[in-house]
Design goal:
The protein has no helices and 10 strands.
Length: 124
């Protein structure tokens, strides 16, 4: 079972950048596809990025494509989300999760329970 802790959120102006980190502990991080999700107040949680276990394949929805970049360092058991050109609508709590095997990065169900998340607020 992999335990995950997110960090790196904060307050940023529109057009700014943030880099989120997700530290994994426990066994098996390098064997899981991973994803970043977000949940804004009053909205359901949505997937914003996915990466294969090797890091060689990534996926993004149209809403963040070209602005967000997911990456991972299996040696350090770390997952990252570089967010550029941030918009107010990116404001949310961001979570990382391992993904079930056997499905595409766009649809693979998240595994396990959610961590505390990290708050991202984009505001002038």
């Amino acid at each position: 079972q992999v335990q995950l802790i997110e960090s790196g959120g904060g307050l940023v102006q529109p057009g700014g950048s943030l880099r989120l980190s997700c530290a994994a502990s426990g066994r098996g991080f390098s064997s899981y596809a991973m994803g970043w999700f977000r949940q804004a107040p009053g909205k359901s949680r949505e997937r914003v990025a996915g990466v294969s276990w090797t890091g060689g394949i990534t996926w993004y929805p149209d809403s963040v494509k070209g602005r967000f970049t997911i990456s991972r360092d299996n040696d350090k058991a770390m997952l990252y989300l570089q967010m550029d050109k941030l918009k107010p609508e990116d404001t949310a709590v961001y979570y990382c999760s391992a993904l079930e095997a056997g499905s595409s990065l766009a649809y693979a169900p998240p595994l396990g329970s959610w961590g505390p998340g990290t708050q991202v607020t984009v505001s002038a």
